[in-house]
Design brief:
The complex is a heterotrimer of chains A (176), B (271) and C (559). Chain A has 176 residues and is of the alpha+beta class. Helix content of chain A is 36%, strand content 21%. Chain B is α+β, with helices and mostly antiparallel strands and 271 residues long. Chain B has a single domain (33-269), classed as Immunoglobulins (Immunoglobulin-like). Chain B starts with a helix and ends with a strand. Classes of the chains: A alpha+beta (176), B alpha+beta (271), C mainly beta (559).
């Protein structure tokens, strides 16, 4: 019975999602209630950057590659912002065990990112994140145009290149 | 939206009152109706399992309460029953390990009451659930009865005799009869929480099966087993010399070979 | 045809009949979108008796899941299909099977949203209610019921939940219901909104109902079990400029259960933290007390299943393999803990900082038992039914459960070279944490993690770790080499060698070679080698990882 429901649901989705000739291929951020590291409550759909690109990066204090990615970008973040106006939003999925250590760590590391606390993984689930680091790139209209998991030294070069392309108005979604 | 606020406040105030503060923690037990169905309580245990003595205590309390209406067997199987340097005894048997693996017991202490619903692993019970399940199953009406007539020769260590199954109703099920030997009061080390009890008294340890790990076929389910008919099964089994026969008991149970549920159980001392 | 089959056929007919109707409904289709993700983990098990790795009769075991989310304006629905054919070793075998483990529909409008079906939710820090999932622990206590979020005024957030909890492919016997209210004063009181001081406070109530059952105290008495057990929590957060203070207190009424040996004592917990942070420096001090706070929706359940709440550990979660050998697990029956951390960046272009600056992290944590006093309670033999013990709220008990002092220094040396050095000093009470008799482990771990950039896209990273201890398995040394071609490829080879083991046969090399490929949101990773037996913990909830030898594959993707 469960298998039938599953198949039915899949058919429902395919019918729904793909039967239109003009199916929109862009996705916007879901609306999840989340706290900022300052304790304010915001809705994720309200994340904006005045028409400029946004990078959203999921990380945690216990994830070494995540911190390496954010530290590596931190070294060049000022230049990136001056050149492209891009904003990076770092979403911590640390739960109550370590969420109180996020703000001191962010400040201690001198990161100037906007930091959000996704303590129960609601935003992570809504964005379909399985493994971190998972980074998303949004264009000026707030549409998710690119995403990537894991981090290796040098990956940030691809990221800034994509941001530059967005600023020039190029369509990067065929890269998928 | 004011309506929702009101509903919310109502919900919250109901929640505040939703707790029971208990002043008297004990309630005396009321006797139950019993129609003759005895219960098999299998306690899957092991000598290096820390929480097993507490589980054995729970089983012992159930035995004291129900007396002859319940038969307990301690099945030593799994990781915590392995012999180790400080725990050299091997209480495992071929059948114990087969049952442990087949039913997916996956840890100690765990138990089964008349193997009820055990094909669904979530019915392998934690010790806290044994008493209530026993109380429920005990009020069922038995379909068969068992009588064990052992003949044991202390010199040759040979067990003969028979087990008689009598049908109390006409039923059609695929049935098997399992006969096994348990030995009581074995003194050997046992872990208990953060300590080890060097001279722990191991109760009703399952020592071996008389007629194979899954027993003998009583009925293939093709035809009815008629009320009041009897089937007699002979026993032939040699005891291991290390077993103290005066502490040994023969346990026999009839079970449904499709669902594995035990229909009736009986036990009898050797001597 | 009986009633249930009739109902089932009707449901199927409705589902199938629905499509064409929706297919032609232009308005609905225009803004709908489908997203999802999936992950598959498979392990091929080979026998290796020296490390204790077993074969399995299936040869290969696999865990997989797929999430699909459909959203359209204010409406969203989703499901997760899970398949354990059969569950990998270390995961509870009651997960065996396949099916839809999670399904929900949510509707949002203005200041109100309602979810029916399965959901995850947390009140405050989760000390009286947290429903969440942690896939690699096999932890999932999803609620099945209804959840309402309500935002009546700016600054007030109300939540209400009711439902049952997931128990493998079924639900637990208890009903959980609760509510949470949070007030952000700066948003509520207009004159306060520009204040430098930010004040938020909140409270929650959770109550569980499970019908009474027969649990014997002895052969003549059974327990008078409370069918309704309630827990309350209050929290406050104050921040002003660089300082942040947070405190949360929880109280649970009598809840006799298998974890606390059926005592009728109340439960309490307190979590406090104070932090100071500014550019380049962060300091935090946290403290906690947990006393009889195991809270499950089934009294007789033990282990990780059917937890209603979540009690975080206050220890640092280590990310390196040797420093993570001895992880701490929360002791719900009672513990006291403190943790302090300093994160400091020595600025660039200073004497100590050098050209690029230096990051230093210092962390200390300690967990002990709570003080328990049983005098005057007349407990003879088994404590079930009694109040258990008395305990002074602010007193640390005599038994040390865990202590961890660690320091990590990271530095970029030049354009090609950067790295970090760490030292961890641990005391691990194996008897309490793992539940078997063994002396406490005193260990020191040294870690060097260095990255060298060969070209802007090609890097080589090496880790060298060493653990020294006189207890348990003795000394370990570990080396790893990882070559990455950004952003697509990873190649790694590593070895953990237990050279200090007293038993010669156990001086084993746990080698591993792996390759990973990442393209955008997809990742495929393969590795082969020996994995040592260990414990994997996330947030203080742990699972045993058995020793394994063989091939491992992980595929994950989002779409």
């Amino acid at each position: 019975m469960k298998k039938i429901i599953f198949i039915a649901f899949c058919l429902f989705i395919t019918n729904f999602g793909f039967s239109q000739t003009e199916t929109p291929k862009t996705k916007k951020l879901p609306s999840i209630t989340i706290k900022t590291v300052d304790g304010k409550t915001i809705k994720t759909s309200e994340i904006s950057n005045n028409g400029k690109p946004i990078i959203i990066s999921f990380w945690a204090l216990w994830c070494k590659p995540c911190q390496k990615e954010l530290s590596t970008i931190a070294e060049v973040y000022d230049e990136w912002q001056k050149e492209t106006g891009v904003k990076l939003v770092a979403v911590s999925i640390d739960d109550a065990r370590s969420s109180s250590r996020v703000l001191p760590t962010v400040n201690g590391n001198n990161w100037t990112y906007e930091v959000l606390l996704d303590v129960n993984g609601d935003f992570k689930r809504a964005m379909n994140v399985n493994m971190i680091p998972h980074t998303f790139l949004l264009n000026g209209k707030g549409e998710i145009v690119w995403q990537h998991t894991s981090f290796a030294e040098g990956s940030e070069l691809e990221l800034i290149e994509l941001v530059r392309k967005l600023n020039r108005g190029e369509d990067i979604s065929e890269k998928k | 939206m004011k309506k929702f606020s009101f509903i919310y406040l109502l919900f919250a105030s109901l929640l505040i009152q939703s707790c029971n503060k208990i002043d008297d923690p004990y309630i005396p037990l009321a006797p139950k109706d019993w129609y003759g169905k005895r219960i098999l309580l299998e306690d899957y245990t092991g000598h290096t399992c820390l929480n097993c003595p507490a589980a054995a205590n729970i089983a012992a309390n159930i035995k004291t309460l129900y007396g002859d209406k319940i038969v307990i067997i301690s099945v030593h199987a799994g990781y915590f029953a392995r012999p180790e340097t400080d725990f050299p005894e091997d209480f495992t048997t071929i059948a114990s390990e087969i049952w442990y693996k087949f039913f997916g017991v996956n840890g100690n202490p765990k138990g089964m009451i008349n193997r009820k619903g055990v094909l669904n692993k979530t019915n392998i019970l934690n010790p806290g659930d044994w008493a209530s399940m026993t109380g429920t199953v005990m009020t069922e009406i038995p379909e068969v009865d068992l009588e064990i007539m052992p003949e044991y020769d202390t010199t040759t260590k040979l067990l003969k005799g028979s087990v008689k199954t009598k049908f109390l109703k006409t039923i059609r099920k695929k049935l098997k009869l399992q006969i096994l030997v348990t030995e009581d009061s074995i003194i050997a080390p046992q872990k208990n929480g953060t300590t080890t009890i060097a001279n722990y008294v191991h109760r009703h340890v399952m020592r071996g099966t008389v007629n194979g790990s899954w027993g003998d076929v009583l009925s293939n389910g093709q035809s009815n087993s008629i009320i009041d008919t009897e089937i007699s099964q002979n026993m032939l089994f040699t005891f291991d010399p290390s077993w103290k026969s005066k502490h040994c008991t023969i346990v026999a149970f009839v079970y449904d070979s499709d669902t594995y549920e035990v229909l009736q159980v009986a036990e009898k001392h050797i001597e | 045809m009986n009633k249930t089959t009739l109902l089932k056929s009707f449901k199927i007919a409705v589902l199938f009949g629905f499509f064409p109707f929706l297919g032609f409904s232009q308005n609905l289709l225009n803004s709908g979108s489908v997203q999802g993700n999936f992950q598959l983990d498979a392990q091929y098990y080979q026998k290796d008796s020296t490390i204790g790795a077993n074969e399995v009769s299936e040869k290969m075991l696999m865990n997989a899941f797929a999430n699909i989310i459909y959203s359209n304006g204010n409406f969203s629905a989703g499901l997760r299909y899970e398949s354990y054919r059969n569950p990998m070793l270390g995961f509870d075998n009651r997960f065996k099977g396949s099916g839809i483990a999670y399904r929900y529909a949510t509707y949002k409008v203005d200041d109100f949203d309602i979810t029916v079906g399965n959901f995850y939710e947390q009140f405050g820090s989760g000390m009286i209610f947290r429903s969440y999932e942690e896939r690699n622990l096999g932890y999932d206590n999803a609620m099945d019921g209804v959840r309402v979020n309500f935002n009546p005024l700016q600054g007030i957030m109300l939540k209400a939940i009711i439902g049952t909890q997931r128990f493998f492919w079924d639900v637990g016997p208890g009903i959980v219901r609760g509510g949470d209210a949070e007030f952000a004063l700066n948003d509520i009181i207009p004159s306060f909104s520009d204040s430098r001081t930010k004040l938020t406070f909140g409270g929650s109530i959770v109550s569980k109902y499970q019908p009474s059952e027969e649990i014997l105290f002895d052969a003549s008495k059974k327990y008078n079990l409370p069918e309704n057990v309630a827990a309350f929590a209050g929290r406050v957060n104050i921040s002003r400029g660089k300082i942040n203070l947070n405190a949360e207190y929880a109280y649970k009424v009598n809840d006799p259960n298998s974890e606390n040996s059926f005592i009728y004592r109340h439960g309490e917990a307190l979590l406090v933290s104070a932090s100071y942070s500014k550019k380049g420096l962060g300091i935090i001090l946290t403290g906690k007390r947990v006393d009889n706070m195991a809270f499950k929706s089934k009294r007789t359940e033990v282990g990780n299943m059917l937890n209603i709440n979540y009690l975080p550990t206050l220890t640092k979660q280590h990310a390196y393999s040797l420093s993570a050998i001895y992880p701490y697990a929360t002791q719900p029956n009672g513990e006291m803990g403190i943790q302090g951390e300093i994160v400091y960046s020595i600025p660039k272009n200073t004497l100590l900082g050098g050209k690029y600056g230096v990051e230093i992290k210092l962390n200390y944590s300690r967990a002990t038992s709570i003080e328990k006093d049983t005098s005057g309670l007349n407990i003879i033999g088994y404590e079930g039914g009694t109040k258990g013990y008395r305990s002074n709220f602010f007193e640390f008990g005599n038994e040390l459960y865990f202590q961890d002092f660690n320091i990590e220094i990271s530095k970029k040396i030049n354009n090609r070279l950067k790295g970090s050095l760490s030292w961890v000093n641990l005391i691990y009470n194996e008897q309490i944490i793992e539940g078997h008799e063994a002396p406490s482990v005193y260990a020191n771990v040294f870690i060097a993690d260095i990255n060298y950039k060969i070209t802007p896209l090609k890097s080589i990273r090496t880790e060298i770790q060493h653990l020294s201890t006189k207890q348990d398995e003795g000394n370990w040394v570990m080396g790893m080499l990882e070559y990455s071609i950004a952003p697509l490829w990873f190649f790694s080879i590593s070895d953990q060698y237990n050279y200090g083991n007293e038993i010669d046969v156990k001086k084993i090399h746990y080698y591993n070679i792996g390759v990973g490929y990442n393209k955008n949101s997809s990742r495929i990773q393969m590795s082969y080698g020996k994995q040592r037996e260990g414990i994997l913990c996330v947030g203080g909830v742990c699972r045993q990882v058995p020793a394994a030898y063989g091939f491992n594959l992980t595929i994950t993707s989002s779409f």
